[in-house]
């Protein structure tokens, strides 16, 4: 069993968003995915994250609002550019927004709350993959813009950990180069050891 989980982790990768098709996870699978996403290290048990589901016609409405916002910011859009925004959330059948929602706390640093939201997003991805779905975790320009976050349903103090696109993927994702792990770790040597 253990080695199956390790094999799964070592083979994990993202699917291209345009190739994520119906069916999406059903309601009970979404609940399973979100339950796994909520079972993450979380200093102080603050649950400093929440999830927003974008599915069905809501995905199209989001695209219309993003296209309008892009036009306000950039001036008139070319047809291609407008279409790009219109379809942002409707390429995959389901998008789950993982929202970092920090809480006021006298001792626990906000940084740790951000990290917990990242852990929630990763658990969400892995749970969807374990159920057989392809995923792709993105943020994109609208996550960095207050008006973008507002139209996507976030409060002013909240930030986007990721918009995880989810669907059925029947291709084989192209392998991409991975970091050389040997270059990424060292044994601790204190400054006194020169
Ligand atoms: C917080 C975060 C935001 C990301 N935002 C984007 C993005 O906006 N656009 C994008 O192409 N990839 C984005 N990525 C990268 C993809 O999720 C993915 O890691 C990358 O395409 C390689 O896929 P793989 O390592 O999962 O196979 C983001 C990753 C993280 C962790």
Q: Would you mind describing this structure in some detail?
A:
By secondary structure, the chain is an alpha+beta fold. It has a domain at 16-55 and 91-169: NADH Oxidase (3-Layer(aba) Sandwich), CATH 3.40.109.10. Helices cover 38% and strands 14% of the residues. The protein contains six helices and four strands. It has a four-stranded antiparallel beta sheet, with helices on both faces. The chain starts with a helix and ends in a 27-residue tail after the last strand. Flavin mononucleotide is lined by residues 13-14, 136-140, 162. Flavin mononucleotide (FMN) is lined by residues 13-14, 136-140, 162.
Report the strand count: 4
CA radius of gyration is 19 Å
Number of helices: 6
The CATH class label of the domain at 16-55 and 91-169 is Alpha Beta
Sheet with most strands: strand arrangement:
1-2-4-3
Unreliable spans are: none
Shape: globular
Look at the structure and name the CATH superfamily of the domain at 16-55 and 91-169: NADH Oxidase
CATH architecture of the domain at 16-55 and 91-169: 3-Layer(aba) Sandwich
The largest pleated sheet is described as: 4 strands, antiparallel
Cα-to-Cα separation, first versus last residue: 44 Å
> How much beta, percentage-wise?
5-15%
Helix/strand-derived category reads alpha+beta
CATH topology label of the domain at 16-55 and 91-169: NADH Oxidase
- Average pLDDT, rounded to a whole number, is 96
Bound molecules: flavin mononucleotide
